Amino acid sequence: MASVNRVNEHLSMLMSCYLDGALTPRELDEVVFALETDETAIAEFRRIQEVRRTMRLLPLLDVPAYLLPGDHLNEQLSAYLDGELATLEMPVVSAHLATCMECRRDLAELDKSRIAVRALPGLEPPEFLDVHRDVKQHRRRGLRTAIAVASGVAAVTLAFTVGPLASEQTPVAVSIGDLQSRHTAVASVSSGAVAVQVSATP
Amino acid sequence: MTFARRLVLVGASAILVFVVPVGGAVAGELEHVLDEANESTYTATRLIVSMWGGQTNVSREYVERANGMEMVKRDSDWSMAGNGKAASMGDKPTGVTFLTDAHGEETNRYTVVARSNVNHMSRPSRIIEVMEGDILRASLVVDDRSGALLIQELYDEGGDMYRRTTLSDFRAYRTYEAPMDESDVPMEIVMHEESELVPEDAGGYRLVDAFSGPGGSEQGYFTDGLFRFSLFVLDRRTIVSGFEDSNVFLTGSGVYDMVATPQAVRVHWSDGSNEYVLVGDVPPDHLRDILAELPDPRSGGMWARWWQRLFG
Fold first, then answer.
1. Are residues A51 and A16 in the same domain?
2. Hey, is the C-beta of A190 within 8 angstroms of any chain B C-beta?
């Protein structure tokens, strides 16, 4: 039984290496022979393929920084005070605060700063500046609108030019010669010599 | 038995002997003819003249066929195909092996009509015609002894011939034992895969088998019993080389990139979500019917493509 398992493990390893393109011609013969004669080997080969395909299809997750060991809460502290944390983030942040003295101290400092800012008196401009203020406000509003529009246009342009490049994975290159060979191989199984084509060059 | 009865009997026998085999359509006959041709053994020079999409292409090649395998020498390149394998023996030999149950398909689409017996290249042969309803699709000269197809003429729906393949210097045996051995060629093994992107049928062609292809693509192999094609569905980011000098194939469903070779036609398009490549030996009118049932090409402008890339 142990030897059978060893053989299977050996074959599984060869099949895995085959999918990596790392077989010697002799090992390749062994795999081909097994796949042509042994149904168990075919099942095993499909299983390996399935596992690899599943692995490829798994989504890539960005782990939040505050979940990484040793990292402290930064932006989350401000959001915590503002009550803007996502529902799922709240227990994570609370749990971290319960155990991290440093973050509790940062939170207290941040809270004090906010209270101090809110306590500052508001300044009103003198009355003789009111007319100019209206004109300036009007001009500033126009300037702000122009800046906002320009920023928007710049952001959209940047997104359209850089975005596709950044989000794309490396494109795969396929030659028509390769595809033709694949068609030829399958077509050669079925009967018929009507225009059986063999592609030697792309 | 009276003379009149004898006369009727002889007349009926004559009709059975001469009329039925010549004019009748025999079920499974097409599959039988193609099977015999596939299993034939010969050495010959093959000349293919193709007139496809306004282009004329000619190919002259040395062919050696035995045991279901065909070895071809074109210019200085050797290649071979058969029994689910294809390999090219250039500087960097490569090959692919398909483990598939795909085999000859019985079809109701075509009927075979035996026309006459002839001597072609001093070989007893028979001419058969393959009909799709009233349309002549193929005229074949079949060598009686080997089963090889000495001449193949393929026609479009208008009755115009679009490909003619002839064998010359024909010998019904192998002239020398060329190395039909792919043991030194690194072979990629491809097995059946369930496919969600490839349709079950298109334009009267039935999906026989589906496989995973290069770069995460999917390959569907279709046949109608006489002609065959493969449809490759690739990721939209895939760069398909080989269509740099393509022609336009215009149908009611859109505009396609097309390259016609002597042996086959290759078509490429994108629907915005996927890239598609069709490779096969289908007649022009069949190709239109097939493309009409597949996703339409969507050219779109630069902004449309960017929008697609950004937001899917």
1. yes
2. yes
Q: Judged by CB atoms within 8 Å, which residues 15-44 of A form the interface with B?
A: 18, 25, 28-29, 31-32, 35-36, 42
Q: Is residue A159, in this structure, part of any structural domain at all?
A: no
Window 149-178 of A: residues touching B by CB (8 A cutoff) are: 159-160, 163-164, 167-169, 171-178
Ranges of CATH 2.50.20.10 domains, chain B: 23-171
Q: Using the beta-carbon criterion (under 8 Å), do B266 and A177 form an inter-chain contact?
A: no
Asked whether the predicted pLDDT for residue B18 surpasses 80, the reply is no
Q: What is the residue type of B229?
A: F
Does B186 lie at the interface with A, CB-CB under 8 angstroms? yes
By Cβ distance, the residue of A28, A187, A197 closest to B186 is: A28
- Pair (A6, A56) in one structural domain: yes
Of B233, B175, B180, B181, the C-alpha closest to B202 is B233
Distance CA B206, CA B231 (A): 12
Residues A54 and A90 in one domain: no
Provide the mean pLDDT of chain B. Answer: 83
- B243 vs A176: CB contact, 8 Å cut-off? yes
Question: In CATH, what number does B23-171 get?
Answer: 2.50.20.10
Residues of A in contact with B264 (CB under 8 A): 180, 183, 195, 197
The pLDDT value recorded for residue B12 is: 47
**For B226-259, how does the pLDDT look when each residue is reduced to its tens digit (9 = 90+)?**
999 999 999 988 889 999 888 888 888 889 999 9
Q: Which of A31, A176, A201 to mutate to test the interface with B (most CBs of B within 10 A)?
A: A176
CB contact under 8 A, A193 and B38: yes
CATH for B192-311, options being 3.30.420.40, 3.30.200.100, 3.30.200.20, 3.40.50.10230: 3.30.200.100
In this predicted model, what pLDDT tens digit does every residue of B98-137 receive, in sequence order? 887 766 566 788 999 988 899 998 899 999 999 999 999 9
B233 close to A (CB below 8 A): no
Max Cα distance, chain B (Å): 91
